[in-house]
């Protein structure tokens, strides 16, 4: 049974594990040393960012095992016409373990992220999409802008 939870400090190690799987699958980490560097740096980042509500993550758990994850960074920038409040969110770490793909988990996580954005007054959501993720983001209303995709709420 799938259960979606909002990540707290208790799930940091699970977040790190899924992030490492994602980065290795994308070929971004080339050695055990690079894995360790990302693991340590991510742990430090999450300990701080989760406390300050600067990083929000949702995780799908199946029978106690994490199988899919999302992450987003909330930040404020100077206002511009489309976003007078200047509040934005960058979505990253969208990942589903291979044997659980195609079950709509990423969509459910993305919906949670968008709901959380609206709750926090976010006006612009953006991300860098993988080839696999691009169709989902397009279905959810994201449009391509240069190398990123964005959604105005």
Automatic annotation (TrEMBL):
It comes from the Bacteria. SUPFAM superfamilies: Acyl-CoA N-acyltransferases (Nat). Gene3D superfamilies: 3.40.630.30. InterPro entries: Acyl_CoA_acyltransferase (IPR016181), GNAT_dom (IPR000182), YpeA/RimI_acetyltransf (IPR050680). The keyword Cell membrane does not apply. Residues 2-153 form the N-acetyltransferase domain. Keywords: Acyltransferase, Transferase. This is GNAT family N-acetyltransferase. The keyword Acyltransferase applies. It holds the Pfam family Acetyltransf_1.
